[in-house]
Every structure is written in C-alpha cells, then in structure tokens.
Automatic annotation (TrEMBL):
Organism: Companilactobacillus tucceti DSM 20183
Cobalamin adenosyltransferase-like domain: residues covered: 3-170
Record keywords, A-Z: ATP-binding, Cobalamin biosynthesis, Nucleotide-binding, Transferase
Gene Ontology biological process terms from the UniProt entry: cobalamin biosynthetic process
Pathway participation: Cofactor biosynthesis; adenosylcobalamin biosynthesis; adenosylcobalamin from cob(II)yrinate a,c-diamide: step 2/7
Coiled-coil features, chain-numbered ranges: none
EC number: 2.5.1.17
Family: Belongs to the Cob(I)alamin adenosyltransferase family.
InterPro entries tied to this protein: CblAdoTrfase-like, CblAdoTrfase-like_sf, PduO-typ
Enzyme type, top EC level: transferase
Protein name in UniProt: Corrinoid adenosyltransferase
Pfam families according to UniProt: Cob_adeno_trans
Amino acid sequence: MKIYTRTGDKGKTRIIGNDVLYKSDKRINAYGTVDELNSIVGMVIANLSTKTKELKDELEEIQQLLFDCGTDLAISQNDTKHEFIFKEDNKAVDWLEKNIDKYTDKTTKIQKFILPGGCITAANLHVARTVTRRAEREIVSLMQDEPINDEVLKFINRLSDYFFIAARYANVLEDVDDIQYRNSKPVFR
C-alpha cells in the first residue's frame, strides 16, 4: 500500500464516503485539530514521569476516543453508508466526568485562575487543554454549516475540563504548587 495518494497535490483530500474536499474545509480543520490533539496526548504519555505514570491508561483511552471523534467528524453529511462510532451509550462523557470528579477531590480548592504550567506533565496537559479548546471551536464552526455528531462536541467540551484537572493532579503528584494569576479576582466558588 502506498502512503501517498497525490490528491493533496491540488489542495484536496478524500473523506469517509468518498467526498473530496479542499484541505481548508471546516470539516478537515475540525478533524485535523482532533488529530493534532491526539498527537499531543501521545507526547504527554511519552513524557510522563515515574510519579505521573498512573495517568497513562486513561490517556491512552482518550487517544482511542479521539480517533473515534475524528472518524465521526470525517463522515460527510451525504454519506449514508457509514454510521457514527461515537454514541451517548458509549458513556465516554460520563467516564470523563467521573475522572474529573476524582481528581477534583484530590486537588486543593481554587478560587482564582492559575497559570498553565507546573511540572512537565502538567504543562503538557495544559497544552492539550488549549488545543482541545481550539478543536471545540473548529467543531462548532463546522456545526454552524453542517450537521455533526453532537456526542463528539460534548466529549471534546468535557475533555478540556479533564485536561485542566489532570494537569492540577499531576502537579499534586509531583508536589508542585499551582501558581495563581496575580490579577485574578475569585472566579471559582
């Protein structure tokens, strides 16, 4: 099998269902950003420390779910042959919320914004969080023009919350304090 197709030589790519779109299409931007996020999660895993290795299995599961999200975003609204993989009954959003609650209980309460960073794992998770937010914006932009799988948007929205609290928990594991933004008024109650 050849890796190259030459379709991209003219600025186009083929999506699931065989539609050919420009690489600048909103659908391509949405699933491309999810793909970028998946790579960042891989980088986070590769850089886990001995103390933060406990996050590895969860992060690998997130990578699997991100592939499902990307697949669903790559399915054209004209495609009647393929069904969405990502569904409410797969309980992915519930699973994220359970983990968010678990890590929230293991971190100190905050009232102010914190600076992204801390230990290496936390800093990398904050990068994942911000790319997740960009993916969400790309998905919403697509959604304004075409139907999408709503479950993907719910998952991505919750995922940024997961990365935020997982970053805070990584700092707890590494015994590193979060740094509050000095000009923040209390925002979390």
